[in-house]
Write the structure tokens for this entry.
Amino acid sequence: MPRLEARPAPSPLMGYLAPVLALGLTVVFGTLLFLALGKSPVAGLRVFFVTPLETLRGWSEVGLKMVPLLLCALGLAICYRSNVWNIGAEGQFVVGGIAAGGVALLAGADAPRAYFVIVLAGGIVGGLAWAGVTAFLRDRFNANEILVSLMLTYVGGLLLIYLVNGPWKDPKGFNFPYSKTFDAAAMVPRLFPGTRLTWGIVLAVVVLAAVWLFLARSKAGFRLAVAGHAPLAARFAGFSAREGIWLSLLLCGALAGLAGALEVAGPLGQLTPQISPGYGFAAIIVAWLGRLHPGGCVFAAFVMALIYIGGELSQSRLGLPAAITGVFQGMLLLALLTADTFIHYRVRWR
Amino acid sequence: MRAVRRTLIHGAALGVALILAACGQEAPKPADKPAEKAAEAPKPPPKPEPLKVAFAYVGPVGDGGWTFAHDTGRKEAEKEFGDRIKTSFVENVPESADAERVIRDMASQGNKLIFGTTFGYMEPMLKVAAEFKDVKFEHATGYKSADNMRAYDVRAYEGAYVAGMIAGKMTKSNTLGFVASIPIPEVIRNINAFTLGAQSTNPKVKTKVVWVNKWFDPGKEAEAATALINGGADVLLQNTDSSAVLQTAEKMGKFAFGWDSDMTAYGPKAHLGSSIINWAPYYKKAIKEALEGSWKVETNWWGMKEGAIDVISLGEMVPAEVKKMAEDKKAEIKDGKFHIWSGPMVDNTGKEVLAKDAKGDDKFIAGIMFYVKGVEGKVPSGK
């Protein structure tokens, strides 16, 4: 019987190579999948990894998709590094979007152009507050943050449905559960005319640098890392576990809330019953694929964005079913988990 | 050992993430059929370029209901026009910011006629329509139009009424259940029509409603159906996109209907009949107009008369006289002898909405935001 045995010292190099390896395996399995579906693998892989990047518009769409994935993943990476298992970035995203949308609806036609800054601030506060609920319950009552943050995601989703069906519904909208479209001043300015990409991506790059600095250089970031790697050592050193919980959750909430704000005040332009196609959940994959490292998250967000868009394109270009997106994401994850397992364990034959 | 535990937690967290990500995309469904091949080998050049027609679907083509019905219409149009057109589709397009990208991509790929088949594509389609003036956009179930965009819809309530007549005869508990999606007039009037139809054959009937706030979510639809049955309903209808309600009724030994498509196969013992939408006549008309250059902005709202709505495949358990009654009513609706929205009509708070001898016109029907007498509860956020 083969048996898994923990390796005394997992290879750090392989840890970084695992995502690349996983991507390679996904391409191999993707090739087999396309062959099994009777499609040319070259054409199939082309649609996934080349076609989305052939035009400026294509790049801008990938960038647009990367922003929410990256922001949520950065926040989650901070949480996971400090051993705080927040899986509610989706809810923090949605509530951030709600708060931003609420501010945006107040704008009025003669609001100054800089009004969108308040909209974004609203999103940050919303996400932060939502994550704060999880932090409070964990800190005060030791409630399991996995369950609390996940359940709050559904509460946030229902809150949005309530608002667009009720008080924030467009009075001229025939009861369609949509808010009014936002005034121009509430919208994040576009980066290039003719594309949907906004200045949000520049903001995301700034946030990326800030998170990087925070994790690698700041004392608070160091304390978080110690608490994550060795909770006992952290306690021995007098680092507060409470600080870790609050800081990581609030940061993640703020970032996810910002992502939600950029989405509603960017491509959406109004509140609808569904403002996220699951960015907060997909960002969990992004964070792990990126090895909880800010730079890695950029790579991972890029790959995930490509898979999303490539999945759509493979429908319209090749006539493949929509499930292809999920299959590719699944293959990528499975390959990554497998690689991780073999980094931490070796197989012994008994 | 801590490393082991950490890895296990990682594994679990990633597993959860994958499941949740999958749920977020609403990908899973039991009865997926392989997608039709849209891309065919290139044809010899002398013929004129075919008109490229694209469809954006909110659910999977294998949902067995709403999207399946649209896709059947697409295939029939393809059969009709042969190599004069070339169709393609994208399924599972969420009603989020993604819709705009998908629709814009369709336009930039040279599609000259684009159908968006859910109300949530209205704003995205308007944005894309403003950019692609030479492309014609068709939006199902919406209310906004532009120079190159028009709305189309079907009178699904006619089918709901006939289904209600059958339900009224078949219920033993005098309680009907309705699994509703999103509280817009389209859905509310189907609840009302179902109830009015049932009351016409059984005045004691009342209808319970559960809202799921989704078009396609078999899990939620099944939960809602279970709740209604546990609440005493023994005949169900749904205004959602999958066959989950019928399947739940089958499992729990109650009756239900198919909606949008013929769903007999999903629950033969529970299936009283299917209120179906036949999109083919409209898609043929729209494509023909685009081919001939006679396409213009107008609103098309088709029903039994135009062959867009029908109630078919009535089950064996439905007695012959009930079947005949349903057929007769269909004929009356078709030739205009019977008008469902006729006064006196009161809402479920007792307020008169149509005076005696008054007939509700299309404007009235499009704005129905009340429950008729016999429907329990309140329209979500309705005035």
The CA atoms of residues 131 and 249 of chain A lie 6 Å apart. Chain A has a mean pLDDT of 91. Residues 68-299 of chain A form one domain.
